[in-house]
Amino acid sequence: MSQRGRKPIDKQQPIETRQAIWDEIRQLKSFFQPEIERAVNLESSNIRDYLTGLLRAGYLDAKTTKDGIIKRISYTLIKDAGRTAPRVRKDGSEVTQGRCRQYMWNVIPILKMFTCADLAYNASTPEHTVALNTARDYIGALHNAGYLAPAKPCKSGEKQLWKLKHGKWTGPHPPQIQRTKQVYDPNLRAVVWQTITGGAE
Q1: Which pick of 2, 17, 137, 194 has the fewest CB atoms within 10 Å?
Q2: Radius of gyration (Cα) for the chain, nearest Å?
Q3: Phi and psi dihedrals of 82, rounded to 5?
Q4: Which residues contact 78 (CB under 8 A, 6 or more apart)?
Q5: Mind listing the pLDDT tens digit for each residue in 44-100?
Q6: Mean pLDDT computed over 103-114
Q7: Boundaries of every domain in the chain
């Protein structure tokens, strides 16, 4: 995979770095770390940490070989989780932050029309409950960013029904609400909405 067109490292989001590495892993199946380094425009330390996390989480197997005094580690993909890169820390534990957002994004195209309460209920699991305020905030952000629209006019006292706008399902990764008051879409690898703090648009 070519490095051409990739953003500078300091401009990339964590999900992009994981996905770039994971895409290469799935393509190569068996590999050495330098092969990944040549394919993606990332720091070797970032690649090494993610490979270590995947190894400890059971996605990769590793074997050490010696070429004279040089030790080389070969990796093999043994658990292919699909297109979306596994979210793991260096110690192999799963990254759970943003999971509720993922669940909401998954059910939005299925529900067709929904209120905040509908989204919170349908996105919840026995292990993870999506709070009503969480659903309300996410709907508000997606509406601001142009993903959602009112499904029909809302009369006084009625709860607003929302729907996903045509053509706005951009991929499996949920748009993210960032601390800088902007919405970032990892599927498009772009900021799709941000608060304007002053001046004309």
Answers
A1: 2
A2: 20
A3: 100, -170
A4: 58, 59, 60, 61
A5: 999 999 999 999 999 999 999 887 788 899 999 999 998 888 989 999 998 877 889
A6: 95
A7: 9-77, 99-194
pTM over 0.70? The answer is: no
- What is the pLDDT averaged over residues 105-130? 94
Return the ∠ at Cα 196 (arms to 194 and 197), rounded to 5°: 130
- Written as one letter, the residue type at 151 is A
Question: Given a cut of 80, is residue 136 above it in pLDDT?
Answer: yes
Could you tell me which CATH class the domain 99-194 is placed in? mainly alpha
CA angle centred on 70, ends 67 and 75, rounded to 5° = 80
Architecture of domain 9-77: Orthogonal Bundle (1.10)
Establish whether domains 9-77 and 99-194 are of one fold: yes
Residues in the chain: 201
Buried b / exposed e over 60-91, threshold 16 CB at 10 Å, is beeeeeeeeeeeeeebebeeeeeeebbbbeee
User: CB within 8 A of 175, min separation 6: which ones?
Assistant: 105, 141, 142, 145, 147, 183, 184, 185, 186, 187, 192
